[in-house]
Amino acid sequence: MEDLLPRPRVAERAPGAFGLSSGAAISGPAGLVDAVRLALPVLDLRPGSHAAIQVAEDPSLGPEAYGITITAAEVRITAADRAGAHYAGQTLRQLLPAEAFRAAALPGVAWALPCGRIADAPAFPWRGAHLDVARHFFPKREVLRLIDLLAAHKLNRLHLHLSDDQGWRVESRAYPRLHEVGSHRDRTVTGFHGEEPAFDGIPHGGHYTLHDLAEIAAYARARAVTVVPEIDVPGHSSAILAAYPELGPLPEKRYRVLDRWGISPAILSPLPATVDFLATVFDEIIGALGPTPYFHIGGDECVLDDWAASERVRAYQAELGLDSPSELHAWFLHRLADLLAERGVRAVVWDEAFVSGRLRPDTVVMAWRGMEVARRAAAAGHETIAAPVFPMYLDYAEASSAEEPAGLGDATTVADVAAFAPAPAEWTAEERARVIGTQFLLWSEWIPDGRTLDYRAWPRGCAAAEVAWTGHPADQGFTGRLGAHLKRLDALGVEYRPLTGPRPWQRGGTGWRRHRPGRVRVTEVMRHLAESAAAPGSARPNL
């Protein structure tokens, strides 16, 4: 029980072990039994009487909580809900040999569980991972596989970044040009920001059908993961405007899906026609996902110059009684949050939207520019997700070494993530209570495929899972537990970065994929972001 990750609240070892055979019986409420079975596929557990594993519902435990008692005669699980039952199953999986994480049982492996007692519950309701599928598209199989890995680490939110300047990634039946035009680009930049541009000359694209999205959401729900879609507006809109330029503030302008990284001045108009367009798109996505508690609407890095240059937008701003484009930006996001609220969904925004003001009180703020702006959002009464660039942006390189593959910057280590405090002790009790969780983020400028995704996400994602579940920095025993846990990732086939450095084939080589140590330091980035978040008009990015 000493190698469990994330660490449970209570884990007490007792003498002896319980032998478990493949195809063993499991009994209890059908939904809870199914959740346990999904967590232990290699065992092929069968519902039945006189079961080796008995599952019971206990609502008094609280959301996502569970208990496990293992004796030499049986295994008893209590769970508050389906999620708790699934996490109990994941814990049992970790108590078994690492071979339990394989897709099929190996001959000669004995399934033995150590006797003892576990009582566990998460510190935060939001324990997530963000995947940017706009910069680089990841096929459905990669998304489903990531969901499996999140579930194995008791992470319960998959934040899907479905739109950006570089691509629109979901079917729209009402506005088909979104996926017909906005989902692909002719080429992709291969150089670093500030250098002479170089491109690969290879078309890139893809999108999920609404049926794909429904499948992803159902697959996630079964594994206690909620999909949080993001349509990032009103900025980051080159792909939308390439398909429907009339939705821009200057209709005469023409746009293309961007083939480079960075921030574009492309921005949607805030006029009623745009609101109607987005309402329709929201309805399509929500309809596909099914019950959806959250919808992320972005609000970050908006260049408002085209609003100021548009006679129609200026007239609309005056009609609303607003004094500036910045106030109009805040009004627009509030209007979108109202639309979502009418559909029973809460809006989530990046922290620029909070700084702009005028948010609905129930809007969730995702703080990426540092913990100071997170604290300000919490102090203002908003539920807040701690997702600062350092240490939770895992597109940053894991070491300041030229052996690493190219990353956005350097360096964010496993130890950095493990030391993160999502709700710092020096905050007030009220501020800490409004932090509903944290997540790690995978922006995909430098993550072109599933193998690179594995490398970036793990094992730093293991440290993030520990912090998100326990609510505080990892303890001194984390490194040892992580070492044992990596054997489970090996069994799962995860191509993670070894703690000692990249394998020869994981290195950046000698070309443009080679990392450039010291070029962009995360400490300097965080200092700049903290300054910008504190400044008036900080919603405007530096181009």
Automatic annotation (TrEMBL):
Keyword Zinc-finger belongs to the record: no
Active site: E301
Top-rank lineage group of the source organism: Bacteria
Enzyme Commission number, as recorded: 3.2.1.52
UniProt-recorded name of the protein: beta-N-acetylhexosaminidase
Stored SUPFAM superfamilies: (Trans)glycosidases (SSF51445), beta-N-acetylhexosaminidase-like domain (SSF55545)
Root EC class: hydrolase
GO cellular component, one term: membrane
